[in-house]
Specification:
Blueprint lengths: L1 H17 L25 H4 L7 E8 L2 E5 L2 H9 L13 H5 L7 E8 L2 E5 L2 H7 L3 H15 L10
Antiparallel strand pairs: 1-2, 3-4
């Protein structure tokens, strides 16, 4: 576990500084304004196969978060079944969740596994996560029950 803390140590400080405006103690990784996925279209990951910035004029609110969409069609698809498009672990890093932490997932560093969207904090971390995706998902899902409602900073102590 010390290696994990060391690995995330520098990243944690950067994340804390870059995201100090994030709402603490929530299951969703959204900005202080409630913007999820840093404005990326959640449906486009599945339909376009790429991280696609949403249009600030095309939005929908779900569970107190605002989602942006690249098209009205994406918005309509999301509104038909939002749960199908939400990132797992509230958009926090899947590898971080497996280690018991909540670090911001980067919407540009993602993977769909079994029709679910997972984010990672960086390409290097994603590469480690890809070494045992099923195992890390199992660990992250078990940890998520304990950490979902916790302030990300409290998990780093």
């Amino acid at each position: 576990m010390n290696k994990v803390k060391a690995l995330f140590g520098g990243v944690a400080l950067s994340v804390a500084l870059a995201t100090s405006a994030l709402a603490a103690g929530v299951e969703l990784n959204a900005s202080s304004t409630g913007l999820a996925l840093q404005g990326h279209d959640p449906v486009a990951y599945f339909t376009e196969g790429e991280a696609t910035p949403g249009n600030w004029k095309i939005t929908s609110t779900y569970n107190d978060a605002t989602y942006r969409f690249a098209s009205e069609e994406s918005k309509a698809e999301f509104e038909r079944n939002p749960e199908a498009y939400l990132p797992v672990y509230g958009g926090y890093c899947a590898f971080g969740a497996a280690m018991g932490f909540k670090f911001d997932g980067d919407p540009e560093v993602w993977k769909i596994v079994d029709d679910k969207l997972y984010l990672n904090i960086s390409s290097d971390i994603q590469e480690r996560w890809e070494g045992d995706i099923p195992g890390f998902i199992e660990k992250a899902s078990a940890n998520w029950e304990e950490i979902a409602d916790k302030d990300p900073a409290s998990l780093q102590q």
